[in-house]
Amino acid sequence: MQPDAASLASGEQAGGRAAPGEPTQQAGGPRIVAPEALGVADAVALAALEGACFPDAWDASAFAAALARPHVRAYGIRDGDHLAAYGVFHFLGDEFEVINIAVDPARRGQRLGSRLFGHVLQQADKAGMLQGHLEVRAGNEPAKRLYLRHGFAVVGVRKRYYPDTGEDALVMRRTAGQGASANI
Ligand SMILES: CC(C)(COP(=O)(O)OP(=O)(O)OC[C@H]1O[C@@H](n2cnc3c(N)ncnc32)[C@H](O)[C@@H]1OP(=O)(O)O)[C@@H](O)C(=O)NCCC(=O)NCCS
Asked: Pfam families given for it (predicted)?
């Protein structure tokens, strides 16, 4: 992602796919809800989750202001009333950009990120987005695997892009229709 974290699939759950907002898993575990679009009303929850994931998190007013802009899209997965995963994207013309995606630290490695990202790529394809772009820290293995799994490829490197660590950014791109399976 970008140096300022704030600057801004679905499928493998027991019980199969559900419509956005409908529960997909109940018995014996936390209630998981299918990926859904988020809005200004979710700004407080987004800020709380981002604060748990990034040191330079946006506050709720920053999320509210961003989400009031027509080209900014946010999607999330709730675990009951708790926001467990979110992603923020720009949908502009026929291209989209991944601004950020993150999963509650306690819920990582459970394919919530994959499920959410797959859903967003389906939305991007439906909206006619021809290209997707993102930047990721070169050492962020989980994020790189997530993006590669969903059809992104590394197309460039921005040397020492992140001022906090001096880490390189990998520039990744996806062409429409690649790796957008709902069942990844
Ligand atoms: C990146 C992130 C969103 C992935 O979400 P997640 O729900 O934990 O990931 P998933 O369980 O869906 O797994 C996605 C892929 O990452 C891999 N992965 C997950 N955790 C991993 C780890 N600790 N090390 C290496 N790979 C890992 C999975 O194996 C999977 O790859 P595969 O499909 O090839 O098997 C999550 O780790 C996160 O919130 N990280 C911190 C915030 C961040 O860095 N966001 C990205 C900014 S660019």
From this structure: Acetyltransf_1
